[in-house]
């Protein structure tokens, strides 16, 4: 297994200087830096080259994640919106290729967060999502990119809420590079057992996000880390395990993630660095040793 962190742990906006975070992640002991896929799509070729160079110089891999905005809803009943979503994913993947990034995860099969003021037609939306992911997977395959469909809780989306639904979804896509992405935060809400959900996913698992049930760094809550680690080893998972904690209020990140109190307990950047460094040591002990 490789271990990573999401840049937004330190940020209040979804865009940032990803090149500098390559150095930061490596200095804290991580193998992987995860960035916002939408941010990559906005970069010039020169900026993408700088990110690639920073990653190579610091020995970290880059993965990308996104919850698609409504105008790019790949599960939309509006064919124009659905097509726009697929084309947007293709632009993201083109940028990923330029930074040598090979995992695109998140809510790429729909939009996020779901607006439940609108009517829900799960069967229709799921059919459109599968069609979109088949199209996107063809482009992804040509760029050596894996598409990882994230299971999320019922309050944020309705198409894929469990490992079981995710496995069935990727089977229906029918592409080798279509995989499942699990996230301990969402699993804690939706699954009967976290270890069993990982085992049920098996070799369909392509990416894994971790954090406590309250969004703190691993080790500061009640999650069954040893159980998850044992299940990952049993499943033979050798991909990336990426921390995705959110502990600070403010900005678009705080608003989107619904962080309404300071979960860091007033921590400085230096203390946040130490917290996630200790979390990495903790997780490695639970998952590998």
Description:
This protein has 289 residues and is of the alpha/beta class. It has a single domain (2-287), classed as TIM Barrel. 46% of the residues lie in helices and 15% in strands. It has eleven helices and eight strands. An eight-stranded parallel barrel has the order 1-2-3-4-5-6-7-8, surrounded by five helices. The radius of gyration is 18 Å and the shape is globular. The protein starts with a strand and ends with a helix. 49% of the residues are buried. The model has no long low-confidence stretch (mean pLDDT 97).
Question: Top keywords for this entry?
Answer:
46% helix, Xyl_isomerase-like_TIM-brl, TIM Barrel, endonuclease, 289 residues, alpha/beta, eight-stranded parallel barrel, hydrolase, AP endonuclease, family 2, isomerase activity
| Measured distance between first and last alpha carbons | 11 Å
What is the multimeric organization of the chains shown? single chain
> Which structural class do you get from the secondary structure elements?
alpha/beta
Percent of residues in helices: 40-55%
Strand order of the largest sheet: 1-2-3-4-5-6-7-8
Net shape: globular
